[in-house]
Prior knowledge:
The protein is an alpha+beta fold. Helix content is 21%, strand content 26%. It contains two helices and six strands. It is globular.
Amino acid sequence: MIWKTKTHEFSATICQKTGKPCPALARMARAMADAMATAQPVTTKEFEVEGSGELSHCAEGCTARFRAHSDLIRVYCGTPPDTPTTKLDDYADMMFGTSLSAMPTGTLSDMPCAMLEVTTLGLRPAAGDPQPAMA
């Protein structure tokens, strides 16, 4: 599912538990995009926030891990806390990226039950360009 605001584009997968888009995930991502936009005048381009939180309005009781950068926000639902963020980012690059990519089977043993990516309009990488670094 893809939708836009005046400043951001949101791309989300369907929740594998419910088979529907997750409104709690969408609300969280919108709040994070607003918070990052508010922080932008007083932070540098390298400013980043990473963490996790319970999606209290999710009927399944899902935990969402997130990483927010000035022009890219990603949220992963239902992943174990010990799953390396780099592997989740590689998976998101494959799912949301504009270029053809693949991952070896078994690289990510616990797939996110849902994911969401937020990009700032006008800053989305061109086809074939790498995603902004999230390290």
